[in-house]
């Protein structure tokens, strides 16, 4: 019993005291045996990689077809931000525009590769090409394109598009060895020109195009006193411009803009009163770059009014040079010609995007301008085509779609007046004295009946009423 109590008291005493936590034993590395393992070869020290500036490259295309690459470089500078901010070379973008110049085609193989049907249209194409020369107009055209791009480099979105830079395959000077007939062959695409108006002819004009002009370079004197349909709009615009110009306090820049617009609109009004012009929707004509039309001293230089044949997809369309366009573009035609080639053509939709339209112009064939005579145009073009060997297909025949003015409705013929009764007896006319003393009014003499002519005449009867 005594031994049990001692054990119980000892257990109670031990349970109230915290036992010390033994320290983990650390093996004696000097005496512990090493764990056997495979021998690992030493890792070579890597060569330090130099710090390179970040240069990500992004590629894309602007809406005008120019491929662009952007490189972003971040070299380490030696100056703090406050100094770099005023250093114009520290934060800049460098633009390099590369435009590869095309070569003009001149061989029969090149022409056939571009359009297999073209060599088959002109009967003497092989012999014509043997003596053909690339026109200096081709080099001048691309020189003008380069200058147009250089002038717009600070506005990349306004730079000439890829489509319009590469719009001309060649310009060749052809000459028939027997007849001596000259022809200028231009191969390009085809855009729509919607200019022109004519008050003498019964045709509606759509002037809603962004670049519409009521005049064309081909014009002739007015033949009637009918009003040009666009004249009232021009007169209204001139009145609006004059009203604003009269307002005091405008800036000098705005006054200068208004003055230029007033002068331009005044010239337009005078032109519309004096001349008639081609109408894009009715007259099949083409447009050439202005610089070509200003080169009259050159033997193959075209002129306004020269006859031309447009060749596309094996069909030959008679035409003439009707207007001048920008000096850095080739390939424009009137809406009538464009819609004949592609019915979906509009002011905003070109008929042919590929460079497969041949414009064959006959320099020196312009005649005195006058209202379009499509039958005469066809006869003239056929004559000049025959003088360079003729063509395999028949020349397309245009239909005159301009309706005549409606005939004025004649005035209705009035009914004849009723005849007077033959037994009607008039009273005796009173004497002067009786007329003065009498209160009875004198009778009104009847009007003399005059036969009606084609133009009614108002006749006033004589005597008292």
Structure description:
- The protein is an alpha+beta fold.
- Among the domains are: about 110-215 and about 280-385, no CATH class; about 220-275, no CATH class.
- The protein contains 13 helices and twelve strands.
- It has helices spanning about 1-15, 80-85, 110-115, 120, 125-130, 135-150, 160-165, 230-245, 250-275, 290-295, 335-340, 375-385, 430-435, and strands spanning about 55-60, 65-70, 135, 170-175, 180-195, 220, 275, 285-290, 305-310, 315-325, 330-335, 350-360.
- It has a six-stranded mixed β-barrel.
- Helix 8 packs antiparallel against helix 9 (about 250-275).
A few lines on this structure:
It is built from 13 helices and 12 strands.
How would you summarize the topology of this molecule?
Elements: H1 2-15, E1 57-61, E2 67-71, H2 81-84, H3 108-114, H4 118-121, H5 125-130, E3 133-134, H6 136-150, H7 162-165, E4 168-175, E5 182-193, E6 219-221, H8 231-245, H9 252-274, E7 275-277, E8 286-289, H10 290-293, E9 307-312, E10 315-325, E11 332-334, H11 335-341, E12 352-361, H12 374-386, H13 432-437
Parallel strand pairs: 5-11, 8-10
Antiparallel strand pairs: 1-2, 3-4, 4-5, 5-12, 6-7, 8-11, 9-10, 9-12
Helix pairs in contact: 8-9
């Amino acid at each position: 019993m005594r031994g049990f109590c001692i054990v119980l008291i000892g257990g109670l005493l031990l349970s109230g005291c915290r036992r010390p936590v033994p320290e983990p034993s650390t093996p004696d590395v000097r005496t512990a045996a090493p764990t056997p393992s495979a021998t690992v070869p030493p890792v070579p020290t890597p060569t330090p990689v130099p710090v390179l500036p970040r240069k990500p490259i992004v590629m894309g295309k602007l809406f005008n077809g120019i491929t662009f690459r952007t490189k972003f470089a971040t070299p380490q500078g030696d100056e703090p931000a406050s100094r770099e901010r005023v250093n114009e070379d520290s934060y800049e973008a460098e633009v390099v525009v590369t435009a590869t110049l095309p070569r003009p085609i001149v061989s029969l193989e090149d022409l056939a590769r571009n359009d297999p049907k073209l060599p088959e249209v002109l009967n003497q194409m092989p012999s014509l090409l043997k003596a053909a020369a690339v026109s200096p107009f081709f080099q001048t055209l691309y020189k003008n394109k380069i200058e147009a791009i250089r002038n717009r480099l600070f506005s990349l979105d306004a730079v000439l598009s890829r489509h319009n830079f590469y719009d001309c395959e060649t310009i060749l000077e052809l000459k028939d060895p027997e007849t001596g007939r000259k022809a200028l062959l231009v191969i390009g695409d085809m855009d729509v020109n919607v200019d022109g108006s004519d008050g003498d002819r019964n045709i509606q004009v759509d002037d809603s195009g962004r670049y519409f002009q009521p005049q064309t370079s081909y014009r002739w004197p007015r033949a009637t006193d009918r009003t040009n349909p666009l004249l009232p709009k021009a007169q209204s615009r001139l009145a609006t411009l004059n009203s604003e110009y009269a307002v005091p306090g405008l800036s000098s820049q705005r006054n200068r803009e208004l003055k230029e617009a007033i002068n331009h609109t005044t010239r337009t009004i005078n032109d519309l009163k004096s001349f008639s012009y081609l109408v894009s929707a009715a007259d099949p004509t083409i447009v050439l770059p202005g610089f070509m039309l200003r080169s009259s001293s050159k033997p193959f230089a075209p002129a306004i009014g020269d006859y031309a044949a447009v060749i596309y997809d094996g069909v030959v369309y008679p035409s003439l040079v009707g207007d001048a366009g920008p000096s850095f573009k080739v390939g424009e035609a009137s809406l009538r010609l464009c819609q004949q080639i592609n019915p979906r053509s509009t002011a905003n939709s070109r008929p042919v995007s590929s460079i497969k339209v041949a414009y064959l112009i006959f320099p020196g064939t312009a005649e005195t301008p006058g209202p379009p005579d499509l039958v005469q145009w066809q006869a003239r073009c056929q004559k000049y085509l025959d003088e360079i060997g003729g063509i395999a297909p028949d020349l397309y025949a245009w239909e005159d779609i301009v309706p005549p003015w409606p005939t004025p409705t004649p005035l209705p013929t009035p009914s004849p007046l009723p005849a007077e009764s033959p037994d009607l007896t008039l009273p005796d006319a009173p004497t002067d004295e009786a007329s003065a003393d009498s209160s009875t009014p004198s009778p009104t003499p009847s009007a003399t009946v005059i036969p009606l002519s084609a133009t009614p005449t108002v006749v006033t009867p004589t005597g008292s009423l």
